[in-house]
Amino acid sequence: IWNKPEIFDYLNETKVLIRPNNYPEGVPGKGFTTIEIDDYGKVGIVNTQGRVFMQSIDCPFRKTEDELSTLKDCNAIIVDFHGEATSEKKTFARYFSGRVSAVLGTHTHVQTTDCDILNGTAYISDVGMTGAFNSIIGMKYETVIDRFLKAIPTRFEVADEDLRMDFVMLDITDGHTEKITVFEYDIMGNKVVEISKGA
């Protein structure tokens, strides 16, 4: 979204779209928000970005640590960790285990099956994506292969075959996750994947 400056004002005003919390000062938007859920209360949502194989930005561990005090009145805190390396994501989850309700990895577009509960903190390396399963991270594989073979920039085309939706469901009580369930459904509503960890 950074190549669309018309959204900068919206990022500063809205609560429904956040960006990584560890971007430098002065970048439009916020790295966390809170939402109210009926019959549950306030939930904190944090977005942070890893640094392994990614653009070098501020430390996701320290920045998230700073924000926990701001979110201390939340009934649950869910962290979206946007990163490449599963080792960095899992280290982050271990560091914050028992202090946040979930660390949900994103970015690679490939759903993982390593869901776990770490001292009341749900973890998965990557939630997955909503898009074409018969693709390379949502793009037509022919256009991606072409880029690898020719080593020059090529325009990717969005794939549209075998559409699927990946997501997780969390059972949270008193800020601690008791169960994480990983799902994948096809476009017809058929369950393709269901894996659970916890109670």
Q: Can you give a write-up of this model?
A:
This protein is an alpha/beta fold. The protein has one domain (5-198): Metallo-dependent phosphatases (Purple Acid Phosphatase, chain A, domain 2), CATH 3.60.21.10. The protein is 18% helix and 34% strand. The protein contains four helices and ten strands. It has helices at residues 8-13, 60-68, 86-95, 141-150, and strands at residues 32-37, 41-49, 76-82, 102-106, 116-118, 121-124, 130-132, 163-173, 176-186, 191-198. The strands form two sheets. Strands 1-2-3-4-6-5 form a six-stranded mixed beta sheet, covered by helices on one side. A four-stranded antiparallel beta sheet has the order 7-8-9-10, with no helix packed on it. The longest helix has 10 residues, at 86-95. 28% of the residues are buried.
Please report the first level of CATH classification, the CATH class: Alpha Beta
Number of strands: 10
Note the main sheet: 6 strands, mixed
The fourth-level CATH homologous superfamily is Metallo-dependent phosphatases
Q: Architecture in CATH?
A: 4-Layer Sandwich
The share of residues in helices is: 10-25%
Radius of gyration from the alpha-carbon trace, in angstroms: 18 Å
Number of helices: 4
Q: What would you call the shape?
A: globular
Roughly how many Å apart are the termini?
A: 39 Å
CATH fold group: Purple Acid Phosphatase, chain A, domain 2
Q: Uncertain runs with pLDDT below 50, 5 residues or more?
A: none
Structural class: alpha/beta
Taking strands numbered 1, 2, ... along the chain, how are they ordered across the largest sheet? 1-2-3-4-6-5
